[in-house]
Amino acid sequence: MQLRYAFRLYPDAAQRAALARAFGCARVVFNDAVRAREDARRAELPFPTAGQLSTRLITQAKRTAERSWLGEVSAVVLQQSLRDAEAAYKNFFASFKGTRKGPKLGAPRLKSRKDARQSIRFTANARWHLTGSGRLSLPKIGAVKVKWSRTLPATPSSVTVIKDAAGRYFASFVIDTDPAADAARMPDTDQSIGIDLGLSHFAVLSTGEKIDSPRFLRRAEKKLKKAQRELSRKQKGSKNRDKARRKVARAHAQVADARREFHHQLSTRLISENQGIAVEDLSVKALARTRLAKSVHDAGWAQFINMLQYKAQRYGRTLVKIGRFEPTSQTCSTCGAVDGPKPLSVREWTCTACGTVHDRDHNAALNVKTAAGLAVSACGAPVRPGVIPAQREETGSQGLPTGNRAA
Predict the structure, then answer these.
(1) For 220-249, what is each residue's pLDDT tens digit?
(2) CA-CA distance, 84 to 30, in Å (whole number)?
(3) Is residue 361 among the annotated active site residues?
(4) Which of 84, 298, 326, 361 is catalytic?
(5) Full-model pTM
(6) Which of 32, 84, 196, 326 is catalytic?
(7) Annotated catalytic residue: which of 84, 280, 298, 326?
(8) Segment 89-137, tens digit of pLDDT
(9) Is residue 196 flagged as an active site residue?
(10) How far is Cα 8 from Cα 20, in angstroms, rounded to an integer?
(11) Which of 70, 82, 172, 217 has the fewest C-beta atoms under 10 angstroms from its C-beta?
(12) Rounded to whole angstroms, what are the CA distances from 236 to 181, 241, 242?
């Protein structure tokens, strides 16, 4: 299994200038490749191959006066930029033919020097290495200071240097992990759990534990609004406007980093404590079109579920996603009776069949666990309910999932 380990970089002034040249050269080669493909399409000619593009756009271009500065950066950076363009076209054609899963992808676009994210990649043949003092030595850039927050579990196969919108630099290493060693690191457990994700609480577990939603974006709104107002007052194209833009970007980066750290800590704890985890397959895109859009994006459910998924695969755990139309908030977890849809204002309800008083979120978490086949009966056999038809008033809800989606 391949994973990425990212670390903060602190290049000096000369190294920042060298990185800027590398970013620019990689961008120019990528754009030249896109233009060459588009020119061939308009002329109804076959697309040039990767080898032809490499010869024309790198080897021969370095000998011309217009592109002689391409020789100032590592050739590996330029070759990897061509590979990125090739991969972008392959993904586009696969998406156009329907052989690629996920949302439809458009044709590759030209990159801009004003893009929020700039990156270059060095593979093993670029001869980059880690120095004895813990610095990252990159060809034609130098030994860059790295802030090591943890140790690398194995020798990296490549490194990508990234500059984000806030002006921060990162080194992202690709590591091949050992599944057996990873599984041995996790303690043995036979526990399983169901998770009901919501907005009033970020998650409610089938054990009854309720995890509060940090609401990172809501807490930072006042600071973000002030920074955005200052940006809007600056003259376009001025240095002060660029400073204000970086201030806004840093404020947003702080929110995203805090949310990501919260998701990492919670997902790691749940994976280490449980062998089986059940969650709902949420339609975040549909929920983001409702009046709860800001709160849905602030919660970051999709990122959290993705973390659970890859960590479960890495450490030999089981993650089960149940259907988004499962009536988890309408079904009694005690007797299995379906009591009909309920407005979000109803946080507790009493089952009309057995008289059990349910907490809405805890009951939903128990039903998530049961629907995934992780619940166990008194005789030790797994409990999984039969198919329950949806209520008539649940249908035609503009693609929104039923149950306590915004609880």
Answers:
(1) 999 999 999 999 999 998 999 999 999 999
(2) 8
(3) yes
(4) 361
(5) 0.84
(6) 196
(7) 280
(8) 999 999 999 999 888 999 999 999 989 899 999 999 999 999 999 999 9
(9) yes
(10) 17
(11) 172
(12) 54, 6, 9
